[in-house]
Every structure is written in C-alpha cells, then in structure tokens.
C-alpha cells in the first residue's frame, strides 16, 4: 500500500506536502532528541583509544626515521605537526561518528559534546597535576606512546600546534557526529519508501 503525504499549510500560502518519514522522524526527535552525554562519553573514549593506537604507529614511524625522545619541536617540524593533526582529526571524527550513531539525533551537537568531554578531561587532569604536583601525574607514568617532543617545549610553533589541534579535534568531532546521524536518516528513508 502506497503512503501518501499529508498536506500542510505552507508559509507562502501554497500547500506543501510533508512525507510520513520526515513527520515520524520529527516526532521521534522531539521525544528522544537532545544531547546524550553517555553517547558523548563513549564517543570520546573511542576517539582516545584510536588516538593512542594511531600515535603509537606515528611514534614507531618516527623512531624508524631516526627521531629521538628528546627531540625539539623544531626537529620534528611541520611533518610532525601535520601527522599529529591528522591523527587527532581522524580520532575525533571516529569519536563523533560513534556518538552520532549512538544518539541517533543531533549529530553536530553530539560531536560538540564529544569534544567538550575531551576538553573537560584534559582540564581536570591538568588541574589535578597542578594541585597534587607532578609526582602524581599518572599519565606521565603510564608511558603511553606519543609524539617524541620534550614536555617543556612551549614555543610559538608549539602553541600554534596546540591551537590547531583544538580546531582539528573540534572539526573532526562535529563532522563525525553529522556523519553518524546521517546513517539513521538513510535508514528512516528506506523504512518509508514506496
């Protein structure tokens, strides 16, 4: 049986047809939409896990190219900064996608929530290290794979890379969230075809 669209009054005075799929999705979104912080947390967790894996690969590649653990930001140069930005972008793209798929609605908002969860975690860890002292810096003791740049390096290039990293993660998370909810829109259209 073919479904017919419902005729709604348009803003220009001419009648407009709204198909049942869009109407059903609008109702579902009004009930189940909004920011889902659980989905955002698991998206951030996915982004962090992928970043660790990709940074391990990049770090291993750096060792293979002869970069040492004490190298300065100038030694790493533009290639290292670009590699870091690509890793962060891809990681947060995946994290935003996970959150968008889990939440089903408001993908851009879910991607932003993934980025905000990551920002809050970074600020909490930085605050804990500042209050408790560097001897309680658990992340430094874990010896996670990372780009081989000394921790004391805070040059203009390093600060620019930090700003670019924040932008790349935000862009990746928001784009990933939109892609994640896009899957559900395709499913919705298939369910009402014909």
Q: Roughly how much helix do the residues carry, as a percent range?
A: over 70%
Q: How much beta, percentage-wise?
A: under 5%
Domain unit count: 1
Rg over CA atoms, rounded to whole Å, is 22 Å
Overall 3D shape: elongated
Major sheet: size, sense and barrel closure? 2 strands, antiparallel
Q: Flag low-confidence runs.
A: 1-11
What is the mean predicted local confidence, pLDDT?
A: 74
| Tally of strands | 2
Counting H and I runs of at least 4 residues, what is the number of helices?
6
Structure overview:
The protein has a two-stranded antiparallel sheet. It has 194 residues and is mainly α. It has one domain. Mean pLDDT is 74; it is low at 1-11. The chain has six helices and two strands, in the order E-E-H-H-H-H-H-H.
SSE inventory with pairings:
Layout: E1 6-9, E2 15-18, H1 20-32, H2 37-64, H3 73-103, H4 107-132, H5 138-142, H6 156-191
Antiparallel strand pairs: 1-2
Q: Brief overview, please?
A:
This protein is mainly α and 194 residues long. Helices cover 72% and strands 4% of the residues.
Relevant terms:
single chain, 194 residues, mainly alpha, 6 helices, disordered N terminus
